[in-house]
Amino acid sequence: LIVVSVILSCIKVVKQNQVIVIERFGKYQKTLRAGLNIITPVMDRPRAMMWRHKQTDISGIEYVLTVPQTTIDLREQVFDFAKQNVITADNVTIEIDAMLYFQIMDEKAAMYEIANLPDAIEKLCKTSLRNVAGNMTLDQCLTSRDKINSELLTIMDEATDKWGVKVNRVELKDITPPHDIQQAMEKQMRAERERRAIILTSEGEKQSAILEAEGVR
Asked: I need a labelling partner for 125 at 20 to 30 A (CA). Which of 4, 7, 57, 153 fits?
C-alpha cells in the first residue's frame, strides 16, 4: 500500500488549458503542462494560488468566495465586480457596474509577482475606474462608455503586464445616477421634447400662413 501510494503521488494528470506550478523544498522547480506528468514524491509539491469562485446559496443570492487552488486555468476569465460609487467631475455620485475579461499568459509571474491576483485585479480596476470617471462630468460618463472602456483597458493592461496577465476587454454594464438626478434628467428630456414640438408646430403654422397668403395674392 505504501509503494502504491508513493507511485500515485508521483503521477499528476493536468487537463487541457491548465497548468500546475511545482516547488521543490519551497523553490520553483517546473510547470506541469496538459497531459501526464511525473514528479518526485516528498520533495516536489504543487503551489496553490488564490482564486475567485462565484457561488449561490439556498436563497438564490450570489456571493464571491476566494479559495486556494493548485491548478491554474489559462483560458479567458471574467470578473464581475459589484457596483461601486464614483464621484464625477461635477460632484455627482454615480454607481458603476464593471466587468473585466483577462487571461493568464505567464503562470510563473502570476504566482510569484503578486500575492493575491484576483484581489489585486479587482482593487486596480476599481481605483482606475474612479480616476477615469472622476475626470468626466455626468453627461460625459453617460455618453462616453467606449472612451472609459478604452482608457481602463490601457491602464489595466499596462499595470497587469508584470503579473503575467493580459487584459482583453473592460466593459461597463451599467451607470446609475442618483434618483433625484434621474428625475431631473427625465424632466429635462420631457421639456426638450415639448420645446421641439412647439417649434415644429410654430414652423408649420408659419409655413401654412405664408402659403395661404401667397395663394390669396
From this structure: 57
Query: What predicted TM-score, i.e. pTM, was given to this entire model?
Result: 0.74
Report the 10 Å Cβ neighbour count for 33: 14
DSSP state of 163: G
Strand partners, 69: 49
Answer for the pair 94, 138: CB distance below 8 angstroms, yes or no: yes
Report phi then psi at 148, rounded to 5.
-65, -40
Say if CB 138 and CB 90 are below 8 A apart. Answer: yes
Tell the burial category of 185 from Cβ atoms under 10 Å away from its Cβ (0-12, 13-18, 19+). middle
pLDDT tens column, 135-166: 888 888 888 888 888 888 899 989 899 999 99
Report the C-alpha gap between 161 and 105 in whole angstroms: 9
Contacts of 77 (CB under 8 A, 6+ apart): 101, 102, 103, 104
Cβ neighbour number for residue 163 with a 10 Å cutoff: 21
Distance between CA atoms of residues 217 and 208, nearest Å: 14
